[in-house]
């Protein structure tokens, strides 16, 4: 049946990953067993969370072993199946590995059948119409319990999840402030309809910039970054504010030296609820979330941002660019 290509973890990164941390390899094509199915990767997802899996420390998934394929979300086509629920020819997305073919069973993390709509490119189902959109929806509405008229601040606002959070918060009638790292990214989110964009590298005082844009305070802070940004925003939260914690990309490249947030007392002062989450903790809302995301795209209220590469071998390069802060929107590799 031919060979399977893999991206292996050659060594554990120190700081921002570099090309020598990865290795391309080939093995024999796997054969699915009873109840299993073989998936050909069509779109590989490049996510900040992967950086945590590359360190030899606990995360919500086990660390990637040296010499093993990197773990990551993928969208692929079932090409051989021993499971009637997942016949050959359908598209699925799930947590798999950076392999151009891989075997799954129905217990795979995040496994979903993808119903591609006519006129919608497949890669969007790994972005705003896929795990990215679902993460934004769950964080805002299931965890953050955001309501129309509230003020939402989102960090890494020009990234995959951040840009989606801002747009769907606007679709629900919220005021939205985005935190970004460059003038180019500030323009991107203003064009998406954000009410304010704060370029934190150019602002001497992040808290002052947010306070000026949101003098009434912040109801929901969607945290993708952690560290100093979280520290600056907590004192600006309103009574009973909510902080859904999606990620802490500001610390992924140096997890041995985490930033000590000094304003956590504000959780008590203003009875703030701060909660980490992953999307698949909320299976009961995902069908509703998917339907609303598709509706917002159809209405033009949600414009998916995608940073696309072509070719399986581009996965490490795309990941390095993402972790270096050089990308806008959802970073995806089409195979």
From TrEMBL:
Xref: Gene3D superfamilies: Medium-chain alcohol dehydrogenases, catalytic domain (3.90.180.10), NAD(P)-binding Rossmann-like Domain (3.40.50.720)
UniProt xrefs under CDD domains: PGDH (cd05288)
Transmembrane segments: none
SMART domains: PKS_ER
Keyword terms of this UniProt record: Oxidoreductase
Residue span, Enoyl reductase (ER) domain: 17-333
InterPro entries: ADH-like_C (IPR013149), ADH_N_2 (IPR041694), ER (IPR020843), GroES-like_sf (IPR011032), MDR_fam (IPR045010), NAD(P)-bd_dom_sf (IPR036291)
Any one GO MF annotation of this record: oxidoreductase activity, acting on the CH-CH group of donors, NAD or NADP as acceptor
Protein name: NADP-dependent oxidoreductase
Organism of provenance: Novosphingobium endophyticum
